[in-house]
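Translate sequence into C-alpha cells.
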Amino acid sequence: MTAMAKIDAHFHCWQLARGDYGWLTPALAPVYRDVAVADWQAQSVPHGITGGVLVQAAPTEAETRFLLAQAEANPAVLGVVGWVDMLAADAPARIEKLAKHPRLKGLRPMLQDIADAEWILQPALTPALRAMADCGLVFDALVKSVHLPHILTLAARHPELRMVIDHCAKPDIAAGGWQPWAEGITRIANETQAMCKLSGLMTEAGPNPQPGAVRRWGEHVLQSFGADRVVWGSDWPVLELASTYAQWWGEAQQLLAGLDAKGQTAVMGENAVRLYRLDRGR
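Result follows.
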C-alpha cells in the first residue's frame, strides 16, 4: 500500500447459513445472499480501493471470529470491527483476548437495535469500555439521532476511548429529517474527539435516490467534523438496498470536490489508517 491508499472504512461480508444475522431476512431481498470479501473487491477495486475495514453484522463473538478468519485469508482486509458481550462478567478478559489478534481494531454494540437509547450508559458496561480503551480498540457507534446526546455523555465519561459515529448517525433523509440530527452532529463534532463515517447516507435516502439526494446531510457532516475527522465507507452490500457502489462513490467524490487534495486523501484513506491504526504494509 502507498501513502495515497484509498480505503473503504466500512463494508460487510456474511454467510447466511451461519444463522446469527437476526436482521437479515428474505424481506431484504437485494442483500439476502452470501457475500464474500472477493465480492466486495469486485465492487471496490475498480475505484482504486486498496483495502478495507470489515464490520460486524451479527451480535455474536462467533461472527467476530468468522470475520477475523476472513481477514487472515484476505490481505485487503486491513482491520475488523467485531462484537463482544459487553455485559458478560468476564467482558474485559474477552476483549483482551480478542484484541490480541492484530486485525481486530474495534468493537460495535448494535445500539440502533436496542430499545433503550441510554443502554450504553449503564454502569455495568464500564469495565468493558475501559478494557476497550486499554487495548486501543475503537468504539464504533451504530446510532441514530436519539442516541447522540448519550454518546456525548459517554465521550465525557471515557475521554480515552476512541470513537467513530457510523453512517453519520443515520439521518432520516427520505423524510427530509434535519433536526435534532443536525444539532446532534454539531455537538458531537464540537464537544468530543470522535470521528464520523461518511457512509450509509444513500440507504437512508430510500430506494433509488436521485443524484444529490444526500448532499445536504453529507455537507453538514464535513462542515461539522472537518476533513481530518471524516472517514469514507461504502456500507456495501447494505448499500444495495438503495443504490450501487459506483453511485455512492460518485456522490462521495462530488461531496469531497470542495476539499483540497490533502483533505480528499484524508477522508478517502488517511483518516481510516489513523483511526483504526491500520497496517499499511499488508
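Note: The chain has one domain: 6-276.
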